[in-house]
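FW: tagging you since you asked about this chain on Friday. Here's the raw sequence from the shared folder, copied in full. Didn't touch anything.
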Amino acid sequence: MASKTIRLDCAAYLRLKTAMLPGESFSDTIKRIVKPRFNLKDWLRRIRQNPLSQQAIDAIELQIAQRRRGIHRA
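HL: got it, structure written out here
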């Protein structure tokens, strides 16, 4: 696997080191913490290829309505 060398200041290194889980590499930690950007075009393409069922649409609409009324708070 190819690799790149990066420079971190001491504060960034300590924050990254503190965030590491046992047995995790720096690369693993970064990939766990820094999620890929959301790609709207890819998401819309996947939705078109696999449309939601009416049951799923109804459930989503119910959740939205409940949140607007303040019934369900996370």
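FW: Helices lie at 10-19, 26-33, 40-49, 54-69.
HL: agreed, and The chain has two domains: 1-35, 40-69.
FW: great, closing this out.
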